[in-house]
Every structure is written in C-alpha cells, then in structure tokens.
Write a structure and sequence with these properties.
With 338 residues, the protein is mainly alpha-helical. The chain has helices at 15-38, 49-53, 59-92, 105-118, 124-145, 153-177, 180-190, 201-214, 218-225, 228-233, 238-260, 266-278, 282-306, 315-335. It has 14 helices and no strands. The longest helix has 34 residues, at 59-92.
Length: 338
C-alpha cells in the first residue's frame, strides 16, 4: 500500500493563514453559486439575481427559485459529501489514491437504483432503492473484510474492489434487461445526474452532520495519517477510530450517490488540491474539502447545463473530463523534484 505523506499536526498559530484560505474558499463557493443562478438557457444578469431570488413570481424568479436554486444546493451538498468522504477514506486506507467509490458503495447504490427503475418506479422509491443498495454494500464489505484479527486497510480495500466488481456485473445485467424506454434514465443516473436530485434539505443536513461528526476527531485523524503505531502510542483507539471513519465515510458516500448518482473524481482530486496548498492538518482540511468540493460540483453542473443548452449533460461526465487531467497534473507536480 502507498503511504500518504502527511506532515505533523500544526500548532494553532500556524492556522492563521489557513483561516484566510477557508475565507477564500467560502468566497469562491459564493461566486460559483451566483454564476450557477445566473447561467442557463435563460441568462439572468447578475444585477437582477437578487430581485429574481426574492421576486414576485415572474419568469426569472420562477427559473431561479424553482429550478436553479434547489439544483445548486444539491450540487453543493453532493460535492461536499464526496470530498469529505474522500478525505476520510484516504486517511483510513493510508492511500492517497482512495476515493469514496473504492469500497463498492457506489456500485451497491447503483444496483438498488437500477432495480427500482427497472420496475418503473421513481421519486422516493429511487432514493430509497439507492440508499438501501449502498447500505447493503457497506454491510457486505464490512462483514467479508473482517477476518480473525479484525480488518486491515489492505483487506478492506481488496474486499471493496471485489464487491464493486460484482456490482458492476449486476449493473451490466440490469442494463441488458432494461426496456428501451428506461435505458436513457438509467445511463444518465449511472453517469451522475443532478436533474432528478430532489429536495436539497436531506443531503445538506447529512453534510452538516458529517462535519459535526468529523471535525472533533481532526487531531486523531492527523495522528492516524502518520501511522497506526504512532497514533496508538499517543492514546488513539485505532481500531475504534478506523471503524468510525469507515461507517461515517460510507454513509456520506451513500447520501451523495442517492442524491446524484455516480459523480467521479471530486472525492479524489479535492483532498490532493488542498494538501498541496495548505498541508494535511484535518482541522482545516475537513471544512476546506467541503467548500471546495461543493464549489467544483456547482461549477461542473453549471457547465453541464450551459455547454450544449438547452440539452443537458450528465454532471459526472464533466467531473471526469475536468478531474482526470487535473489529477494527472497534481501527481506530476507532487512528484516533481524540488
């Protein structure tokens, strides 16, 4: 396994520049939100956004409040969930290439969602099927990876890969059985689609809960990232912490996949970008990942709605096209001799 290169936890005084980084990330999120509200098949000047957001029901107001605002909120929540889950899993697996989908959660969720679509159901049934499939995959990976001496990061990773491969086979089988009228919706969901994201409140609440559950353990994450032996010698209950991280990251991923389908590269690229800018102290990396992940997915969704307007692209296609070269660039920059 490739070990993450994590610096030591920083002192409180060194957090001052990172406070400004968080402020910058917050401003970028606000800017991406405004651009997303303004851009689309019906462009709205920035000067008219505020009246449209609080307007009296005109065309611009309806477009902003009923269509773009909920979708942007879902995009921010899903991006934040994936980035937060990716940050946690890279610590858990001691592997900087880990992402939220590496443990089969996405595959299980896709199987559940496609089964619902195959039955001709939608709405809450789709969300419920995706969530049930994700949780079943989590339980399956956790149960199979637990050997005599408990589970290790290597065993967990390999089990997740096997479960993901099995889910991929089931997905291909379901697509082969699907009638023509259902096939387009299934493929869009598999590629990541925010047009059917539903109400933004559930993923936003889950994102807030994820921060509340992870920010208090930031110090323990810093120690675990430097090695299990060091963390254990400094009083961290390593086995309990690993289980906690795995369960929280899996629930975050399940919530993201339930809301938007499979959106790749956000959880992989965002932690790398932030570590290059400000180091690996999770006291700022966790909230920073949420802000940057949400910003990137809002921008990607805005492009997906506008590049070929009025036709819309799956947002997962945009994140892959942007994320793949960006990740390769980050790897080259990280490996470049100083």
């Amino acid at each position: 396994m490739t070990r993450s290169k994590q610096p030591a936890a920083t002192s409180p005084s060194s957090l001052v520049p990172r406070t400004w980084l968080l402020i910058l990330l917050l401003l970028l999120a606000v800017a991406a939100f405004a651009v997303g509200l303004a851009a689309g098949s019906l462009p709205i000047p920035l000067a008219k956004l505020w009246p449209a957001l609080w307007g009296d029901g005109g065309t611009q107001s309806l477009v902003v409040r009923e269509l773009r605002l909920p979708r942007l909120l879902v995009a921010f929540a899903v991006g934040g969930l994936l980035a937060l889950a990716g940050t946690l899993l890279q610590v858990l697996l001691q592997n900087p290439l880990a992402d939220p989908y590496v443990l089969g959660v996405s595959g299980g969720s896709a199987v559940g969602a496609l089964l619902v679509m195959l039955l001709g159901l939608g709405g809450l049934w789709l969300s419920g099927g995706a969530l049930a499939g994700a949780l079943l995959a989590v339980a399956l990976v956790f149960g199979l990876a637990h050997g005599r001496g408990g589970w290790t990061p290597t065993r967990l990773l390999l089990t997740g890969i096997v479960v993901a491969a099995a889910c991929g086979a089931l997905i291909s089988f379901l697509l082969a059985l699907a009638p023509e009228r259902n096939l387009r919706g299934m493929l869009f969901w598999l590629m990541g689609d925010l047009s059917q994201g539903g109400a933004p409140l559930p993923p936003l609440l889950l994102l807030g809960a994820g921060l509340l559950l992870t920010v208090p353990i930031a110090r323990s994450l810093n120690l675990l990232a430097r090695g299990e032996l060091l963390a254990g010698s400094l009083g961290v209950e390593v086995r309990t912490l690993r289980r906690y991280i795995y369960l929280v990251a899996s629930l975050l991923t399940a919530g993201a996949v339930t809301a938007a389908g499979s959106v790749g590269f956000v959880g992989l690229v965002v932690p790398h970008m932030l570590r290059l800018v400000g180091g690996s102290d999770h006291r700022w990396l966790l909230p920073g990942s949420v802000l940057l992940g949400g910003t990137l997915l809002m921008l990607a969704d805005t492009l997906a709605r506008t590049v070929l307007a009025p036709q819309q692209l799956p947002v997962g296609v945009l994140t892959a096209l942007i994320g793949a070269p960006l990740f390769l660039y980050l790897l080259q920059r990280e490996n470049r001799p100083s």
